[in-house]
Specification:
This protein is about 35% helix and about 25% strand. It is an alpha+beta fold and about 300 residues long. Helix 4 (about 80-90) packs antiparallel against helix 5 (about 95-110). The longest helix is centred in the last third of the chain and has 19 residues, at about 265-280. It comes from Phormidium yuhuli AB48. This is WYL domain-containing protein.
Length: about 300
């Protein structure tokens, strides 16, 4: 038995019918091969679609949403990242440059290797990764162990690999098998039958001393294997797989943190401080000063 339907008569301005058909076509509300205005009205009445003006994203909002999308992508939530990007494209009143940038980002999130990495890690499946570094050089690594770590606003992929040929002038040859990869520079991955490395990343033991207020304020980090306070000095021993990130961390602490050992790492930081002292011990270089704009009482630049 067919369902009884009600009929209505609409009085609309010229051109409105075409606009309604365009909306129905965009939403996929069709009657056969033609867009259905009746179906569109029913969908609106049943609250299947939300009505309202497109919101306008400020540069600050775009920056926040872009950062959120990057975090979702790096942590393997590809579908959620794509949903957020699509929402920005569909509902945001974006300029041409912003729209193109979002479309490029959306095209990158769908790469299959991003979700495969976590799957390989859980299955302890080794894989080969093609990577383009900051200098534009492409290298292939055989990843036999992988972990994801957060450093300064983004996730990085830490791997233990067989290859060491690309390492030049290493300060820590015992760490030459470790690599820290930016996820957005990975070009592809393919599985391999090379055995998984149960031991994880190579590490060195770093002895740190924290002084004054930092002795109590210091929050333990992953990798800390000893932590004690002796005579108002906090002594920490940490397993470190990448000294680069450790140095970036402790530079913020200034004189309240000291590397006790290994001596190579202590000397490396001392050299950096000496170079900085040399740079700031003399007068600054002569550079042209920016001309300061002046404004009239009406607020317009003169």
């Amino acid at each position: 038995m067919s369902r009884k339907k009600e009929t209505i008569t609409l009085s609309i301005p010229p051109g409105t019918k075409a606009k309604l058909e365009a909306i129905a076509r965009r939403l996929g509300i069709m009657w056969g091969k033609s867009p259905s205005i009746s179906g569109l009205i029913v969908a609106i009445a049943e609250a299947e679609y939300e009505l309202g003006e497109k919101f306008t994203l400020t540069p600050e909002q775009i920056k926040v949403l872009d950062h959120a999308t990057q975090l979702l992508t790096d942590t393997g939530f590809i579908a959620e990242a794509e949903t957020l990007l699509q929402l920005m494209l569909d509902r945001g009143d974006l300029d041409s440059a912003s729209r193109q940038a979002l479309m490029k980002t959306l095209s990158k999130t769908g790469q299959a290797w991003r979700t495969l990495i976590e799957d390989y890690r859980q299955k302890q499946q080794s894989f080969r990764v093609l990577y383009r570094n900051s200098q534009g050089e492409e290298n292939t690594y055989t990843a036999r162990y992988v972990q994801s770590d957060f450093h300064e606003k983004r996730y990085y992929l830490h791997i233990w690999c067989d290859e060491t040929e690309d390492v030049r002038d290493s300060d820590f040859p015992e760490l030459n098998h470790n690599r820290c990869l930016r996820r957005d520079r990975i070009l592809s991955i393919v599985p391999t039958d090379v055995p998984w490395r149960e031991e994880g990343l190579d590490t060195i033991k770093v002895h740190l001393h924290f002084y004054r207020g930092l002795a109590k304020a210091y929050d333990g980090r992953e990798g800390d294997i000893e932590d004690e306070i002796v005579d108002d000095v906090r002594r920490v021993v940490r397993d470190v797989a990448n000294p680069f990130w450790l140095l970036r961390e402790i530079r913020r602490y200034g004189p309240d943190c000291e590397i006790i050992s290994p001596l190579r790492l202590r000397e490396l930081l001392a050299q950096e401080h000496h170079q900085m002292w040399q740079r700031y011990s003399g007068p600054p270089p002569s550079v042209p000063l920016f001309k300061t704009a002046s404004y009239s009482s009406s607020g317009y630049k003169k």
